[in-house]
Amino acid sequence: MSTTAQGVISRRAGAPAELEEITVEAPGPGEVQVRIQASGVCHTDLHYKLGNVGDDFPYLLGHEGAGIIEAVGEGVTTPAVGDYVILAWRAPCGYCRFCSIGQPHLCSASLNAAPRMFAKKDGKQLSQALGVGTFCTRTVVAARQAIPVSRDCPPAQACLIGCGVMTGIGAALYTASVHRGSTVAVYGCGGVGCSVIMGARLANARKIIAVDIADNKLDWAREFGATDVVDASKTDPVEAIKELTDGNGVDYSFEAVGRPDTLLQALWSRDLAGTCVLIGVPDQAMKMELPMLKFFGLGGALKVSWYGDCLPSRDFPMLVDWYREGKLDLDRVVTRLIDLKDTEAAFEEMQRGEVLRSVVQFPD
Asked: How far apart are CA 145 and CA 141, in angstroms?
């Protein structure tokens, strides 16, 4: 049996997204229906709205979600109706060429639900952002995308684990494998960058240098544990980082902006054999010219982090535990609580750099 819900739909690239009634079909085999309690407003949703990800409009936006299982499809034993879950946009299939060799975080056949969401006014099938779609009162996802967690982490905080927080922390702990006592530089101190800083703190890095051009973001970085900050609008960040590391550079650098110029700066900020991790999402037109001999001479590694190389079924409950133990400051990540009708204004605030994370909170 289908139900009626409300959702924020992007129908045309660059046009304002609008709140509409949607039809949600009952979950099929291996699927669950989730009543959304909170959803973070992530930059990736803005990319969908602007048409930078694809052209499968109309899109049901949102992909950072937490909520309650309302119904399960055939064959689903976990999660169960009533479970409190965080939604993951990557759910390993268990059978692809990566899963079969013990690398499920690289799954090439990540599970999603069949199309179950439709715009009520014209019947058009909705493409769910990252296969999730959480700017809505109800959504349908693959059962393995819904990760049961402790209710000790409130929905507004828990939903952020579903993408931005996990991406940043995972980039530090898994992609880069930051070592105790090491040095770190983070370029771009929005939601993901500040999560990298939290991850570097959890790894007991000795020095964490935050780089940005906005004073408010550098202030956020300090609050999350940066030991030093560099305003790249006023000084050469590479030289500043070298000065802060006895002329050597850092062991690990992270680019959370998605621009060629900042990626090059992150590369040249490294010490010999250092690791640079690209997290920021570039657009299709971007290219980078790399001096090969300089890159070769510095050694080390350039990596790309997808979802922080996490395994949601393992890591989401662990991050909730860290929040409960006071090791992870998710409360500070939530800048503003908003209604579902306010997502367009939240995108504008995001573009102006005024918020770390706006979170849509749904009434019970």
From this structure: 6
pLDDT for 217 beyond 90: yes
Q: What would the mean pLDDT of 146-167 be, rounded to a whole number? A: 98
Q: Is the pTM of this model over 0.85?
A: yes
Measured between alpha carbons, how far is 229 from 233 in angstroms, rounded to an integer? 12
Is pLDDT of 341 > 90? yes
**What is the SS3 assignment for 83?**
coil
Whether residue 363 contacts residue 338, with contact meaning beta carbons closer than 8 Å, is answered with: no
Would you state the pLDDT for residue 255?
A: 98
The residue length of the chain stands at 364
Q: Closest Cα partner for 347 from 2, 5, 15? A: 15
174 pLDDT higher than 90: yes
Please state the CATH superfamily assignment of the domain spanning residues 3-164+309-361 in this structure.
Medium-chain alcohol dehydrogenases, catalytic domain (3.90.180.10)
**Whole-angstrom Cα distance, residue 333 to residue 330?**
5
Whether omega for the bond prior to residue 16 falls within 30 degrees of 0, making it cis, is: no
Q: How do the domains of the chain map onto residue ranges?
A: 3-164+309-361, 177-304
Concatenated DSSP letters of 22-81 = EEEPPP-TTEEEEEEEEEE--HHHHHHHHTSS---PSEE---EEEEEEEEE-TT--SS-T
pLDDT of residue 364: 81
The Cα 79–Cα 70 span in angstroms is 10
Instruction: Output Rg (C-alpha) for the chain, integer angstroms.
Output: 20
Helix (H, G, I), strand (E, B) or coil at 224: helix
Among 3.40.50.720, 3.30.750.24, 3.30.450.200, 1.50.10.10, name the CATH number for the domain at 177-304.
Answer: 3.40.50.720
- The whole-number average pLDDT for the span 163-177 is 98
Alpha helices in 162-209 (DSSP H): 164-170, 191-202
What pLDDT is stored for residue 44 in this prediction? Answer: 93
For the stretch 289-306, pLDDT in tens is: 999 999 999 999 999 999
Nearest partner of 359 among 150, 170, 134, 194, judged by Cα: 134
